[in-house]
Design goal:
The chain is of the alpha+beta class. The protein has seven helices and twelve strands. The chain has three domains: about 30 residues; about 140 residues, no CATH class; about 100 residues. Strand 2 and strand 3 form a beta hairpin.
């Protein structure tokens, strides 16, 4: 790393004041903002005014606690007033058995049976609404299918029909994935949205710089092996895990505590006996990192087991 005169001055001051090693390491992880495409993550808050959702007739606006809702005969558009996250959920279908034809008649008609065209349309819609284009790295599709037949016969793939696609946008900053942010939508044959969700919080500049520096640091095989060794010392099953990656992670859309965002080295540690995999995150000096929402979830889970 090239040091300019200001950097040299700072290092001299650090040595004179005996700044703790963790803080010195943090300083060494800084990078020049001019080398970054994204110097910070831009916040976007979706709203019903920007949405293509048509609530239908007799739409009503409700507020309950930390949530505001617009309720219509076609669905509910909900906003978390604390985090800014939004979710659009279509109304439930009428109950009782029905044929595939009757089911499709009751459901919105999909925009297209071409997943690429659907993804292009959803991306254009959400970017026009205000999602920062240079923070969208790629899209992916989930598919909802429907079918008929006897319950005892199980799923019959040959009888299944496409109901709709949902396109999801992936967020990244300078090529580093942002875990926890989301934006997705499902469009009907009129280009209207009948299912969508958005949570795109601001990511502080110092977190973006730290993530870029950590990625550069871990480009060294030796350094990455050191990090894996630290993970294995705490989580023995990490020895058989796949290669990790640098990510920016933040608290989830429903968490009402203090917002947190961190640059981490993330590993998926699988249970050799099956069961749920564990995500292990290490900060820039290899210390395990647990977010505030994860602590809350763990405490709630522990309380339920008592």
């Amino acid at each position: 790393m090239k040091l300019n005169s200001m950097s040299i001055y700072l290092l001299v001051v650090l040595g004179a004041l005996h700044i703790p090693m963790a803080m010195a390491n943090d300083l060494q992880l800084q990078v020049d903002d001019t080398s970054l495409l994204n110097t910070k993550g831009v916040k976007y808050i979706h709203s019903i005014e920007k949405s293509r959702f048509n609530p239908g007739i007799r739409a009503q606006h409700e507020i309950e606690g930390s949530y505001s809702r617009t309720v219509g005969d076609k669905g509910v558009f909900m906003k978390d007033t604390v985090t800014g996250a939004t979710l659009l959920v279509p109304n439930a279908l009428s109950t009782g058995p029905k044929s595939m034809e009757a089911l499709k008649a009751e459901l919105p008609q999909f925009l297209t049976d071409d997943p690429d065209k659907h993804s292009a349309a959803v991306k254009a819609y959400l970017l026009e609404a205000g999602i920062p284009a240079n923070e969208v790295s790629e899209t992916y599709i989930t598919t909802t299918m429907g079918g008929g037949g006897p319950i005892g016969a199980g799923i019959q793939a040959a009888e299944s029909k496409l109901l709709w696609y949902t396109t999801h946008l992936k967020r990244s900053l300078n090529g580093i994935p942002v875990e926890g942010s989301f934006a997705f939508a499902t469009l009907d044959n009129q280009g209207k949205s009948f299912s969508e969700g958005v949570y795109w919080p601001a990511i502080p500049a110092h977190v973006v710089r730290k993530a870029a520096a950590l990625k550069r640091k871990l480009s060294s095989t030796d350094v990455e092996q050191q990090f894996r060794g630290k993970a294995e010392a705490i989580y023995p099953n990490a020895a058989s895990s796949e290669a990790g990656e640098v990510r920016i992670v933040h608290t989830n859309a429903g968490y009402h505590g203090k917002f947190e965002a961190e640059a981490v080295y993330s590993l998926v540690v699988r249970n050799p006996e099956g069961g749920k995999a564990q995500i292990v995150r290490l900060d820039e000096i290899g210390t395990p990192t647990i977010m505030g929402d994860e602590v809350k979830a763990a405490l709630e889970d522990s309380a339920k087991k008592k």
